[in-house]
Design brief:
homodimer; mainly alpha; Tetracycline Repressor, domain 2; 9 helices; 76% helix; DNA binding (chains A, B); Transcriptional regulator, TetR family (chains A, B); DNA-binding (chains A, B)
């Protein structure tokens, strides 16, 4: 139990440093220094910097996957599913900002095996997103717009949210949770 | 006339290299080599790598500014203005992909004076965009959603378009020009 706590403390500290300087520019020594411990004692809890990176990236990626797997099969309409997905992106952005930044900036530094796992999760996520759009179009709930354009537009905004949110703390989370889904799903033009 | 042609050839070639490898990783020697000329003769046409960068970045930034200055005062409604702005982003993305990539990736490497010019143009552009949104809300043409969220969402998508467009050549420009403005302005939900 003690070890698990220490490990999660190491990971949280590393995520902050990776976010600030990028994975490549941070050493195990830097992480130890930030924690006020010796570099050698880091290795009691963690095998390598790569292990920290994969823990961070796969933790966030699995948060997205788990939510998608929970929402996708529900008997609610496509609009409600997309709404839930957008709310989940906002929640993860607010709650795991450093982890998310690290995933977005440093996933390409994962080793071969973890990279394959990450890409599999990301592709599966996009495939479910695409299916929800296509089902929504088939059921006449959504406009028949090019799915690739819609996926690009919505996911680009959601993936960049952590960058904007870090700078624009003047916008309250409640406003974001109310207005971002409206903007993405219903647009900005009055009917 | 000959010098101008040569200069524009140098700039186009440099933009391609900057896009591929980033401004910092490209030398004047690399640009000369790509053009099949001696590095020394580059300097007959151009003072420095910084001059090339500022020519590229300010060229694109001014394309956006000129279009905004032409559209903003017109007596058309806010939706038509936003539609025209989105179409212009698509046109510049398609016509000046390398220049746009260079602006997005390397503007921070401009020297102090050019950086100030660029940031002034970018801030003025965003301010006009914000005013169009606010006028549209005041005239009841647009939904009263938080303007900062809307600006973030639309400009993030438009600014990332060149990345996506380079990879997704399967989507025709005509489809993009039809469906992207719809997605951004009217959303994807059927009324």
């Amino acid at each position: 139990m003690k070890i698990t706590d220490r490990k999660s403390e190491i990971i949280v500290t590393a995520a902050k440093l990776f976010k600030k300087r990028g994975y490549n520019a941070v050493s195990m020594r830097d992480i130890a220094q930030e924690l006020g411990i010796k570099a050698a004692s880091l290795y009691n809890h963690i095998k390598s910097k790569q292990e920290i990176l994969s823990d961070i990236v796969l933790n966030v990626a699995e948060s997205f996957t788990n939510h998608m797997e929970q929402i996708y099969p529900q008997s609610i309409n496509s609009i409600q599913k997309l709404e839930a997905i957008i709310q989940n992106h906002i929640d993860i952005t607010v709650q795991k900002t450093d982890f998310l930044a690290c995933m977005n900036n440093d996933w390409m530094h994962l080793d071969e095996e973890n990279l394959a796992t990450y890409l599999k999760l990301r592709n599966a996520y996009e495939a479910s997103f695409r299916k929800i759009l296509q089902e929504g179009i088939a059921k006449n709930e959504l406009e028949n717009q090019n799915s690739e354009i819609v996926i690009f537009s919505i996911l680009t905004t959601l993936r960049a949210l952590y960058l904007w949110y870090s700078k624009k703390s003047s916008v309250e989370v409640e406003v974001l949770k109310k207005d971002l889904p409206k903007t993405l799903l219903h647009g900005i033009v009055k009917n």
